[in-house]
C-alpha cells in the first residue's frame, strides 16, 4: 500500500451540491471540473473519495 497511488478526476459539477461535498473536493485539491490530482492510497483519502464518489472517477496508478 505504500507505493499505491490514486488518480482522482472530478467528473461532475459542484453546482447545487452540499457545502460538505464542496469542502471535500477542495481538500482533495480539485480546483475545477475535469481536473485531476494524484494522492497516496491511504484510508483518509479513500474515505474522502467515498463521500464524493458520485462526483469523481478514481484510478489506481502503479
Note the run of SSEs as H and E. EHEHE
Q: Indicate the structural class.
A: alpha+beta
Note the main sheet: 3 strands, antiparallel
Distance between the termini: 10 Å
Q: What global shape is seen?
A: globular
- Kindly state the number of beta strands: 3
Give the mean pLDDT: 95
Quaternary structure: single chain
User: Strand sequence of the main sheet, in spatial order?
Assistant: 2-1-3
Please give the share of residues in helix: 25-40%
Q: What is the alpha-carbon Rg in Å?
A: 11 Å
Count, helices: 2
Uncertain spans:
none
* Percent of residues in β-strands: 25-35%
Name the descriptors.
62 residues; alpha+beta; three-stranded antiparallel sheet; 2 helices; 31% helix
Offer a quick outline of the entry:
The protein has two helices and three strands. The chain has helices at 19-28, 43-51, and strands at residues 5-10, 36-40, 56-61.
Amino acid at each position: 500500500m505504500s507505493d499505491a497511488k490514486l488518480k482522482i478526476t472530478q467528473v461532475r459539477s459542484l453546482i447545487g451540491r452540499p457545502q460538505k461535498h464542496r469542502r471535500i473536493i477542495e481538500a482533495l485539491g480539485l480546483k475545477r471540473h475535469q481536473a485531476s490530482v494524484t494522492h497516496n492510497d491511504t484510508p483518509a483519502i479513500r474515505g474522502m473519495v467515498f463521500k464524493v464518489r458520485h462526483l469523481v472517477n478514481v484510478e489506481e496508478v502503479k
